[in-house]
Amino acid sequence: MEHTGVTAAQGFSAAGVTAGIKASGKLDMAVVVNNGPEYNAAAVFTRNRVVASPVKLSRTTVADGQLRAVVYNSGNANACNGTQGDTDAALMQTRTADRLGIEKHEDVAVCSTGLIGELLPMGSILSGIDQFNDALGSDAEHGTTAAKAIMTTDTVPKQAVTRRNGWTVGAMGKGVGMIAPSLATMLVCITTDASASPEALDEALRQASSVTFDTLDIDGSTSTNDTVIVMASGASGVSPTQAELNEAVHAVCLEIAQQMQADAEGVTKRVTITVEGTDSDAEALNAARTLGRDNLFKCAMFGSDPNWGRVLAAVGMADAAMNADQISVSFNNQVVCKNTTGVPGARDVDLSGEDIDVRVDLGTGGEGTATVRTTDLSHAYVEINSAYST
Amino acid sequence: MEHTGVTAAQGFSAAGVTAGIKASGKLDMAVVVNNGPEYNAAAVFTRNRVVASPVKLSRTTVADGQLRAVVYNSGNANACNGTQGDTDAALMQTRTADRLGIEKHEDVAVCSTGLIGELLPMGSILSGIDQFNDALGSDAEHGTTAAKAIMTTDTVPKQAVTRRNGWTVGAMGKGVGMIAPSLATMLVCITTDASASPEALDEALRQASSVTFDTLDIDGSTSTNDTVIVMASGASGVSPTQAELNEAVHAVCLEIAQQMQADAEGVTKRVTITVEGTDSDAEALNAARTLGRDNLFKCAMFGSDPNWGRVLAAVGMADAAMNADQISVSFNNQVVCKNTTGVPGARDVDLSGEDIDVRVDLGTGGEGTATVRTTDLSHAYVEINSAYST
């Protein structure tokens, strides 16, 4: 088995334990530890203005560009719990630092995922943290156990690795648009043994996120808890260039994002939408997102229905430059609409496969282009997301 | 039976006929004729930039504030059909003017609704128009037949009337978010025997639309064909004030919008969302729309699940001023979240009824407020909208 995940890079250990937060008795806490010699880090967080207590805490924690560990729990988001939520997140942090022998508790980030609005069961949380020392290890199995412990409605753990000349980037992730019984969170932890400054990590992470996690749009919803963290141990002794670092971080982010798309709850189709022929990349992204969030379009994809009229109706509402009489659309590389008019045979295109590629040219002749990954809207999505939270 | 619909006001006649556009053999063409003595009119159209040929034509037609008739067909949207679509819409207009003895064909507006991207069957269309003269009448039955003839996936015809001191406003409508086999259109025709200038009609229509049809948001989709037309015959001899006209037009628009919400395909719940406590009405509307379009929230409503965490996660992404730590939420007048924190018993609120009232206070203390009507996201919605268009 290839060594993938957060322990693939030198200088990292990980653990996953059963703390008793989940009624199912499954793994529900994890920790990823950076053993150095360097402790540089960067992070991106949810753009939602309603943020969970662990996000508030971790934003502050990572501000100095240093992290020695990240502690995770699944089964409870610790969001919308008022000041008690803040107190509980802080206790998770200090207890983890204490038990792992980390001098400054500000060097520990905290991530939670699960139901919103329920207080953390702190007895379970603390007993979980107390198990970390015995459970830590640096092999592939320990990384996989940590990846399992952050799962909520994910059906498979999500891990990635990319190896370069003497250095490695690994990652684990969970979530996005998988939501029962409550809103799900995207959590990602990226580790590398490269030597890289916090600024270099920040640039690499922002560039990669903007074209991977930020364009993975299952249902347009954004969690209160979304957090992506990258830590660099420097243990390889290699200092990649910024371009090399960007490329490698992008590679693992893309792989995790694709695994999230494939595992999104209720998915029967993976839909990749590319918009071009508008004035800027930002406008192309607006149009691709508008289409990717259109329920009529997503239902048509579920039905394998090449209903290109819904594509036009959706992009026609987007905030993007377009020539409304010269829009073209193709499904799986077959042109179905040209000059905003259907082409013969357009309704016979076969969309029965699991992957559907949609391309829209907005007809301005501009250079703007963007790609968004989404899914269909299925019965299973409704079923999963209408289940009682109680 | 109360005389409601487009023939309730003096000076109007209507007809509904079977032209053969629908394979089912149901009524599929209608006309509403203003017999004067005045012919003032106003209209609002879809904000979509991809617009159907009849919308392009009717925009021009109504620009001078005069209309003598509106011709309707269902079963085919005449959208995205290139210049042939424009030609066909123009022929619908001139043939209707010719057969009804209307001197200027620019006094006839055209509305179509149905599948996008199929050419109009002009043989059927012209034979339908040729039936109008024999089919026209001014009683309640003729209005109802016209209302039936514009239906697509509507299950009931939608009509309204409001009577004032000596004058009357009536209306018929179809659609919004009822979409199989393709994107559905909202078409509304309002008639009044008041004497009112085109400018007065325009103001009344825009004010009413902004708080009725514009805030009825079933799935966030906007059709290529949406058209709301008001015509005034002056036959009552009464000239209401602007305020009186506004109030009466609003009354019929609200009634039609409520009928649309109740009849939206796949609906099991009618959800009314009111947002307050933000800086402006526009910001409150943004937040209410963001919530009304959030699939996770809509699935929770389908499941009668008082999952207030999804409300916070949705409004947290809205473009509206908010105090993220002081948001409150109530379901059916029971507070479930205060200061962005759950209140005891929040998960026990009974949402099993068909109507759910959601109120969100964004906590800034501002005066902004807005209400949006939406529905749940149900299995039936997915079923209906994933059916093949072919």
Automatic annotation (TrEMBL), chains A, B:
Record: residues binding substrate: 152, 174, 185, 265, 385, 390
Site description Involved in the stabilization of negative charge on the oxyanion by the formation of the oxyanion hole, residues in chain: 113-114
Gene3D superfamilies: arginine biosynthesis bifunctional protein suprefamily, ArgJ beta chain, C-terminal domain, L-amino peptidase D-ALA esterase/amidase
Location in or out of the cell: Cytoplasm
Reactions this protein catalyses: L-glutamate + acetyl-CoA = N-acetyl-L-glutamate + CoA + H(+); N(2)-acetyl-L-ornithine + L-glutamate = N-acetyl-L-glutamate + L-ornithine
Primary residence: cytoplasm
Catalytic machinery residues: 185
Entry keyword Ligase: no
Recorded metabolic or biological pathway in which this protein acts: Amino-acid biosynthesis; L-arginine biosynthesis; N(2)-acetyl-L-ornithine from L-glutamate: step 1/4; Amino-acid biosynthesis; L-arginine biosynthesis; L-ornithine and N-acetyl-L-glutamate from L-glutamate and N(2)-acetyl-L-ornithine (cyclic): step 1/1
GO cellular component, one term: cytoplasm
GO biological process entries: L-arginine biosynthetic process; ornithine biosynthetic process
CDD domains (alphabetical): OAT
Chain's role: Catalyzes two activities which are involved in the cyclic version of arginine biosynthesis: the synthesis of N-acetylglutamate from glutamate and acetyl-CoA as the acetyl donor, and of ornithine by transacetylation between N(2)-acetylornithine and glutamate.
Family under the similarity heading: Belongs to the ArgJ family.
Protein name per UniProt: Arginine biosynthesis bifunctional protein ArgJ
Gene: argJ
